[in-house]
Amino acid sequence: RVKQAALLPTTVPLVLLRHTAAVKRSDFRGKPDAERPLSGRGRSQAKALVGLLDSYGLVDVHSSDATRCHDSVRKLAKSLSTGVQQEHALSEEGFAASPERAAKRMRRLTLEQVPLVVCSHRPVLPTLLESAASVFGADATGPLWDPKMPPGGFIVLHRSFSDGQEPTLVAIERHTVD
Fold it and tell me: Is 111 a member of any domain?
């Protein structure tokens, strides 16, 4: 088994994260939905994510520009001594305006040869997963590709890059945080 493991290619993780638990839409009135904050549970989940995601050696943190997404990864970014790259294309509003822009951005992120996390929203996740799968020529079906995740849930795509070619998908993991 050790010999088999040693023969596996080096991988570069891409973590696709659903933001942690937020205040319910029905309880948040009078401001744009993009400003809806994390709930107490969501703040606890965001804190727990730091230790979990730190094990992947992440370098870059990308997020929807919505408050609940940014706050889900803010402490992680701080622990990595980096900033959060907020991207409107990854938000619900940006996705509603241009699903293709979100898909194109995800394809570009999938091609980046650095360990990174992308934090987005439940309605956007199916398109982001399909876009990542298209880079690998994979069919985004089956339980590992299921975009339905609880708040704070995430999928890890282990990519292998060799000699400037398109990446290959080596493994997929699914996790949740309580």
Answer: yes
Average pLDDT, the chain: 94
Nearest by Cα to 67 from 148, 122, 121, 1: 121
User: Would residue 2 count as lying in a domain?
Assistant: no
pLDDT digits (tens, 9 = 90+) for 123-169: 999 999 999 999 999 988 888 999 999 999 999 999 999 877 789 99
Q: Residue 87 burial (CB < 10 Å; 0-12/13-18/19+)?
A: buried
Structure tokens, 114 = 């650095």
95: in domain = yes
| Tens digit of each residue's pLDDT (9 = 90 or more) over 97-126 | 999 999 999 999 999 999 999 999 999 999
Helix or strand run (H / E) with residue 74: helix 67-79
Domain that holds residue 60: 9-175
Number of structural domains, the chain? Answer: 1
Tokens found for residue 55: 């094990």
124 with 92: CB under 8 angstroms?
yes
Residue 150 in any domain: the answer is yes
What is the CATH classification number for the domain harbouring 97?
A: 3.40.50.1240
Residue-wise pLDDT tens digits, 57-75: 999 999 999 999 999 999 9
Rg (CA), the chain: 16
Read off the tokens for 125: 């996740």
Give the bridge partners for 85, in sequence order.
Answer: 62
